[in-house]
Design goal:
136 residues; mainly alpha; two-stranded antiparallel sheet; 41% helix; 4% strand; binds heme C
Length: 136
């Protein structure tokens, strides 16, 4: 009987963890989130009239490579550890905190935060060739 219970428990743990890993879909969940909430201020430099607008804090998130390069001052991603990634840390701050990202508009909701966390925790998967673009 004990063996049976242990076997069932293992099955549950195994199923639960494999569901979590399979859960994050870059194209369906992460890309739309970054495009809606982050890219407009952290895109490639672009012209606005006669001025060139640069990404805020030097942080470009249009490609995985640029995101991994980080900002002028910091690495913002620790692959496999959202809790130690500035990119996530700045998003989970209280809504009235001076440093919260995005600084304008609605903060990320619980679902979005868990997508961001799972994405970083599970290795920052990025579909080959995808370049995020800002919306005008
Ligand atoms: C409306 C513009 C805007 C949006 C949208 C925005 N940011 Fe920022 N971000 C900034 C500005 C301005 C700074 C630099 C000042 C500061 O650090 O607060 C910054 C800085 C950062 C930094 C700190 C870099 C460093 O080394 O200090 C991180 C990390 C960051 N943003 C992540 C995000 C994430 C994640 C999102 C989306 C959830 C996001 N940002 C959306 C404007 C924006």
């Amino acid at each position: 009987m004990k063996k049976l219970i242990a076997a069932i428990a293992c099955g549950i743990v195994f199923t639960a963890s494999s569901t979590i890993n399979a859960a994050v879909d870059f194209d369906k969940q992460v890309k739309p989130l970054l495009e809606a909430k982050c890219i407009n201020c952290h895109a490639a430099p672009y012209k606005s009239g006669s001025r060139t607008k640069k990404p805020k804090a030097g942080l470009r998130i249009d490609t995985r490579e640029n995101l991994l390069k980080g900002s002028d001052d910091n690495k913002v991603i620790k692959i496999g550890d959202a809790g130690k990634s500035l990119f996530y840390q700045r998003s989970i701050l209280p809504a009235d905190h001076d440093d919260i990202m995005p600084p304008k508009g609605d903060p990320l909701n619980k679902v979005e935060l868990s997508v961001l966390k799972d994405w970083i925790d599970s290795g920052l998967k990025w579909t080959d060739g995808v370049v995020l673009k800002r919306k005008e």
